[in-house]
Amino acid sequence: MFRWGILRVRFVAPLMILIQIILSVGIVIGFAFLIPGVDQDPVAAQYLATGAMAISLIAVCMAFAPSMVAQQKMQGIFDFQRALPVPRSATLVADVTTWVLIALPGLAAGLVAATLRFDLELRISPLVLPAVLLVSLTCVAIGYTIAYVVPPMAAQMATNVVLFFALMFSPINFPAERLPAWLATFHDFLPLTYMAQAIRETVAVPEGGVSPLPFAVLSAWCLIGLLVCQWVMSRRG
Q1: pLDDT tens for residues 149-171?
Q2: Please, what is the Cα angle at 107 between 64 and 32, to 5 degrees?
């Protein structure tokens, strides 16, 4: 199934990688123009650096990937996949692996750009790999849930809305304190905040260490998403 997944995206993968590299580097460089004195504000620089990584994962796994599924539903490939004599979980694992590999160049580009732009001193935790994998898996689980449950055209629009919401109205590239109180409270129940926190605290470990809360919340969201995906993939008709 992994080979099938790679072959399926072989023509669009280079364009996706290019877009997400531009996106992650653009956040680091372009958003810095919006924050006066960012060079003297290590917290703001840290948010931009790690936020670019989070947005890169969200773009690939929660926007590009579900859009591909929506197209497969319209082309009948989705029904063909469900008819294959392989475990449904194997399809999901293969897809997640494919999308994580596609997301890696954007992650690296964003981190390198931030390090060069802000001269950051990073304290990388061994938990960074589990954090990246958990964020990726959660993004795919949520994105696939939208793509599986919602009609294809609506799913494509919904995932784009999620990406814009994450980019502009989520405490990923800036602290939650800058949001209106009601929106900050709303984000307490969404996974986007915790995706950014998991990456931020494992790339630049704070004095108090890495918080387990983001991992717990993301695990819950991921489990729910995967259960819904498994149910949709397994049902007949």
Answers
A1: 888 888 888 888 988 898 889 99
A2: 100
| Model pLDDT for residues 211-228, shown as the tens digit of each residue | 999 999 999 999 998 888
Our CA angle for 132, 133, 135, nearest 5°, is 65
What does residue 204 show for φ and ψ, rounded to 5 degrees? -130, 85
pTM: 0.85
Q: What is the dihedral of CA 210, 215, 217, 222, to 10 degrees?
A: 160
- As given in the structure block, the two tokens for residue 223 are 């489990």
User: Given this model, what pLDDT does residue 127 score?
Assistant: 93
- Token pair for 194: 């915790």
State how far the alpha carbon of 131 is from the alpha carbons of 123, 139, 172, 199, in Å: 15, 12, 15, 6
Cβ atoms of residues 128 and 203 within 8 Å: yes
42, burial (CB in 10 Å: exposed 0-12, middle 13-18, buried 19+): middle
Sign of the C-alpha dihedral computed for residues 222, 102, 104 and 167 taken in this order: negative
Alpha-carbon span 130 to 136, nearest angstrom: 10
